[in-house]
Amino acid sequence: MACTSASACVAVGGGVNDRANRIAIAATWNGIAWSAQHAAQPRGSSGAALTAVSCINATACIAVGYQLNGADVALPLVERWNGSAWTVQPTPAGRGGSLAGVSCVSAGSCVAVGTTSDSTGATVALADVWNGLTWKIVATPSVPNAPYAELSAVSCSAATACTAVGSATAPGFGTLAERWNGSVWSLETMALPSDGEEGFVMGVSCTSATLCVAAGDYINSSFTYVTLAERWDGAGWTMMPSPTPSGAYILQMTGLACSGTSACTAVGWTQLGAMVLRFNGSTWQLQPTPPPSGPPFVTAMLNGVSCAGVSACVSVGSFTGTLAEAWDGSAWPLMSAPNMPGVLNSALVAVSCITATSCTAVGNQEDAAGGQTSLAYSWNGTAWTVQPTPPVSGAVTIMLSGVSCTSPTACVAVGWYASSAGMQAPLAERWNGHAWSVDLPPVPSGAVAASLASVSCASATVCLSVGSSQTAKGRQEPLIERWDGSAWGVQSAPMPESALQGRLASISCISATGCVAVGEYLNGSAAVGGGHAHQPMADTWDGASWTSQSIARPEGAPASYLDAVSCTGPASCIAVGWFTGPAHAQTAMADSWNGSTWTMQPTADIAGATLAGVSCAASDDCTAVGAGGAATIAERWNGSAWNVQPTPNRPASARALQGVACPSSVTCAAVGTAEGTAGYQVTLAERYTA
């Protein structure tokens, strides 16, 4: 990573997409929050990753790494950031290889280093130089009798003064250092300690031509990894005593940054977790780092660091997802990284926006004991922040599934909780602008369990919520509850005459006397394959009673479901969901309500698509979100047709959007989940701006 100020950092790396291909990833820090960027994926490559980045300013960065060609042979990769987009730069392939480090002193002077192969097949050091127009391979000195040599990092204090470090397997070598004077590279001796068996130098930082600090690690005679630090004074390299964390026997130093002659930070990891060493001009000292609260047996790793000043360093790495920590001169607090918060399994399922700069999202997360607890976030136009949610007395599980806000200081969220005795009951929470408080809506008479799935508030004192309840005989029935500003009360919820059971999944209210709710029911009169057909269901509220409506459904579909609805007027609603075809393929579904009848709308043709959320800014302007395969999808209704909108599918093995809110025709916020390759689920938020 690279920082040009305390509020301008760029981090790069690699991930794995849902096709198991390695892809380049990038993120930027603006002093408040991390934002994921679309790193360029080289055309025709089967995989790519970025391993280092150097920035002249916030809008001029060079990142390097590798790409795989069609034969899975590694080739050097260089990408350029102009403040808004990443583009691939033409780079000489030579005999292949990869780039591991880069340093730029100006827009027209950069040096990148890594590894390649020589004519005999041996792995040798690689160096590329940028002159502002093209990249050119420059020869590096061979290491005598070394079958393997690599350069891992480089630091330039001037266009004619660069130092690169790495490792080599050869008698008299282990650690490797080379010096660039603007025209040729020369070898430098960097000795190992007397008990050193093998050394690796992974980071270097030069503040002048006569002052460089390098950090890495080596294996001692007891086959234990220990830290390594050396300093260049313009004439030679000398060892610097450096501590190794107590109990660590496997470690790696991965990054180093110096902001002055007496301020250096080195980062890495051990089998115990993340590791940070700080140099104060005379000694190296270990610094405590906060462990992310994550799944057991997951080790945090720091892979890069950049310092904009003595008391302003940022380090990035990984654990279950991406990881970021910031040094403020006294401590390393965790930062919210692009795919955080939520290091255990977590999900956002609903969102409500008053304006483009005021949104509230809710969901759930797995706590340290393995139980489920509620989750809430607020969006201020710049970043998402956690809103602490209260415990529910006697609850072992708490889930929030819907939210509706009438102002930044008035929101209602609904869901359910389970007691230690196994009882499932409805749950509501209210936000007053400062804190969430718990309400416990009643369980319907005769029901043994109940839950709320969605809520819509016409005002701060009028909210209606829908869900389902269960009788002692296991029959599922739709549930509707109403908030009058002081208490919740159960309302009668109709079902079609042929329904064996049913549930309501979503509700939209344009006023206290105008609401539409949708869901699905099990039809007792339509046997399909020896079973019963699931069919869509819709109810309307006129302020006095609920009425069941006949709703259009796909002909011949063995099952169809409506999961979300949004209304802009009493005769203007859009409901979305999905159905299964004869071959049991999932297909997105949309229905429109004109105040008297429901009509099916053809949706965009996306294989395996389901729609889970919808929000309408106007009758001819609706956005629906969901999932197609393992990717997020969004479709836009323009009054006559649904059209696909591209969504930013960040690296993950599976992604889905579950809720969306559009306060205007030019902005929407969508939330959901992403499942990483390690199998852990994290929260996901995406924003649309026209």
Give a structural overview.
This protein is 0% helix and 63% strand. Among the domains are: 208-220 and 236-340, no CATH class; 413-424 and 443-689, Neuraminidase (6 Propeller), CATH 2.120.10. 49% of the residues are buried. It is built from no helices and 54 strands. The protein is elongated and about 90 Å long. The two termini are 31 Å apart. A 4-stranded antiparallel sheet has the order 1-2-3-4, with no helix packed on it. With 690 residues, it is mainly β. A hairpin with a 2-residue loop joins strand 21 and strand 22 (263-270).
Question: How would a crystallographer describe the biggest sheet?
Answer: 4 strands, antiparallel
> What structural class do the secondary elements suggest?
mainly beta
- Write down how many β-strands occur, each being a DSSP E stretch of 2 or more residues: 54
Assigned CATH architecture of the domain at 413-424 and 443-689: 6 Propeller
Uncertain segments of ≥5 residues (pLDDT<50)? Answer: 293-298, 336-343, 526-531
Alpha carbon gyration radius:
29 Å
Termini distance? Answer: 31 Å
Brief summary:
The protein is an all-beta fold and about 700 residues long. The protein has no helices and 54 strands.
